Amino acid sequence: MRQRLKFGRMPPMFTRDQTAQSLRSPKGDIGNFRYFDRCSWIFRIVFRVSFTLLDLEYVPATIRVTMNLSDWLHVSFDEDSVNMKADPPEKPGWEQSFQWKDIIRVCFENGDWMSSDTIYVFTNQRPESYVIPTEAEGGAALWGEIIRRKLFDAELAIEMATQSEGFACFPPED
Q1: What is the number of structural domains in the chain?
Q2: Is residue 152 located within the same domain as residue 73?
Q3: Mean pLDDT within 63-91
Q4: Cα(146)–Cα(41) distance, rounded to whole angstroms?
Q5: Buried b (16+ CB within 10 A) or exposed e, 87-108
Q6: Cα–Cα distance between 167 and 174 in angstroms, integer?
């Protein structure tokens, strides 16, 4: 016996016996009810075990502190220089800066879906590059400023943005 629901009415609540009765086949057996009951018990066990394992008492302190890169790496710039300040969790912080006029080459690497896009800035002040993830706070704004100052070709930047992975430098090597 099925009830038709009218618009605006809440569906009636069934007890377990009424639900089992509605699942009976014409032969009189309960049909799929045992399957649903078994699934609910499996779900309860998986749910309880997973939350027991994820309980904070069982998780080490180093895993509990999950910070995004933008929470601890900050990039800022003005008309003269670019400044980076890092305060990584459980490690000593550091600061670095370089002048816009000292930049000799900029490279860009597309990250995959698990990693950030990365900007490599080469200056005449040191042989190694400054590595700046665009995921850092201010990283995307820095990338825009690099393009605005024509330190990286805008067409090449658009081409890189449309690719899923790649690496490009400007000016290109001779």
Answers
A1: 2
A2: yes
A3: 87
A4: 58
A5: eeeeeeeeeeebebeebebbbb
A6: 16
